[in-house]
Amino acid sequence: MFLGKSLLVLGLLQASFGHAYQDNDEPQTVLSDQAVKRVAIIGAGAGGASAAYHLDKYAQVAGIKANITVFERSSHVGGRSTTVNVFDDLSEPVELGASIFVKVNKILVTAAEELGLTVSSADLHRPKESSSQLGVWDGERIVFSQDDNGYSWWNIAKLLWKYGWAPIRTQNLMQEIVGKFLKMYDEPYFPWQSLSQVSYDLGLTAVTSETGAQFLESKNILPPFSTEIIQASTRVNYAQNLPFIHGLETMVCMATDGAMAVQGGNWRIFDGMIKAAHAQVKLDTKVTDVIYQHDGTYVISSASSPSSLSKDFATEPEDTINETFDTVILATPLQFSNINLDAPLIEKRPDKIPYVTLHVTLLSSPHRLSAEAFNLPAGSSSVPEIILTTLPKETKPEERAAGVGPAGFFSISTLRSVRNHAVDPPRKEYLYKIFSPHPVNATFLGHILGLSEPPVLPDPPVSQDVSEDEVQEGSTAKPAVTAAQPSGDVTWIYRKAWHSYPYLYPRVTFDEPLLGNSLYYTSGIESFISTMETSALAGMNVARLLADSWLGKTPSSSSSSSPPSSADHKDAVTQDAASSKKTVAAEL
Ligand SMILES: Cc1cc2nc3c(=O)[nH]c(=O)nc-3n(C[C@H](O)[C@H](O)[C@H](O)COP(=O)(O)OP(=O)(O)OC[C@H]3O[C@@H](n4cnc5c(N)ncnc54)[C@H](O)[C@@H]3O)c2cc1C
């Protein structure tokens, strides 16, 4: 996700350690037994890193010794937050996954500060050579264009002239919803033992139970603003159209203030968190089994990940290591983890939910985006540097990959200019990022770059299908493509298919943070809101639940009423979201 500074991002939140764990608290007397607590965290992404970071803090304040081990099957920390290097040049990292967070993402903002990382505006390096910063393309024409001064009176006047009061209503609604969401960081809501309950208590289930289209309509936010602007945002952020994505994630897409990124890569936050927690990290180590023992502990079996083995050893049997832990935090979607989870006390296993397969293409080219490709006059200097997409007015929105519509892609961002030193003399090029439901081919690239012939791409040609294993492993060790022709029209290209985020169909219950006896789960939050910050929040929440359990504290209940039962939860896989009925009275 890479968006303009004034429009369309992901936002949220406020961090708090809650009263019992203020940072300046003196360590408490240990109330529980003195033994060192052995905690296994599976996954070194935002959720796992935050769990380690906060658990270490809570344990210190509580005077409890925690021995934290983080298992990570890939070769890097950060999970879906990771960078690759343009031209293989270490000084040119570029985000391949999660690229931005926003001002109200307090866990990330605070951690970046505490860890001494440099944060800058997300579009600091955008070339800013076009008179249009951002445009929305429907496959036939640019339906909206914004110049480079996001908050200029001209941009605001244009918005109001075209869309009336809908932008203002949206802004107010977004602030109201983010305000409710922020309460999840504070007592009496934090820590929450049930995500379904806290969502209900805060009135957010009323928003997750409807599609974005239904929710916006009920608030008198109508087309064309909803379909041209808000839907462009849900598509670039989540590859989903308004009649299918739920209302809460729709509103999150409009929380855009203060989009920022960590210099060198957002993964540095998660790397710093794990280091600060003094956790032992086992990279290239996949967990294969989590087995509950009668004494209440878990045995974790792990082995070297295939990606870390050289070809010579690929067929050798893998050495399995078994280790015992008191607590396990599963910080990755269970369905992609290939873990055999043998824990009979689990009340409800996490749902298998559909995830978006998103194709990310990074490429460098000396050419700028073509005006003709976007039906602008030849040579126009106003080709937007960031092109978002929506559907033409008469096109019926579809779901999943077919939802992309005539545009064929979700976004094209001109990230920055780069220097290609492989040609003599070195030349300036442009670094682009494309989000699409299918791999983009040479013909498409030739078209958007205004070339008479498709560019020559690396040999062998990129396969149109990335194997499910490659997506699941989340491995960047095996990129689909590396460098192209040093002096060609596309000089560097990198492709990656991700299980990027869930299809966020309306729902009223969520997978809970506590799966069973001392077994915690962070990824349930992805069906609620899927961002780095919310995974970090889920990590902080399970850390606090765990620390409280060590201290013999029972979670405070803020609720006076019950959330909908899981029987009300429409099957996310088969549900026709567009026809979903309201199951919860609108509380907003
Ligand atoms: C292309 C793209 C763009 C995005 N843009 C943004 C954005 O701009 N802003 C934003 O906030 N969010 C964005 N997101 C979403 C964001 O990346 C995720 O919500 C967040 O990073 C999820 O963090 P996580 O820790 O929950 O999961 P992950 O990051 O997926 O971490 C889970 C980790 O567990 C490991 N693992 C899995 N199974 C095993 C096993 N068996 N043994 C050991 N390790 C295992 C995985 O290798 C992985 O490293 C984007 C995602 C993608 C893909």
Automatic annotation (TrEMBL):
Question: Which residues fall in a compositionally biased region of kind Low complexity?
Answer: 555-566
Give this protein's Gene Ontology molecular function annotations: prenylcysteine oxidase activity
Sequence ranges assigned to domain Prenylcysteine lyase in this UniProt record: 148-554
Keyword Oxidoreductase included in the entry's annotation:
yes
By its UniProt entry, which Gene3D superfamilies does this protein fall under?
Answer: FAD/NAD(P)-binding domain (3.50.50.60)
Q: Which domain of life is it from?
A: Eukaryota
Where is the segment annotated Disordered?
A: 457-482, 552-588
Provide the cofactor list for this protein: FAD
Signal peptide span: 1-18
Q: Which Pfam families match?
A: NAD_binding_8, Prenylcys_lyase
Q: Keyword set for this entry?
A: FAD, Flavoprotein, Glycoprotein, Oxidoreductase, Signal
One GO biological process term: prenylcysteine catabolic process
Q: Which family does it belong to?
A: Belongs to the prenylcysteine oxidase family.
What name does this protein carry? Prenylcysteine oxidase
- The source organism is Xylona heveae (strain CBS 132557 / TC161)
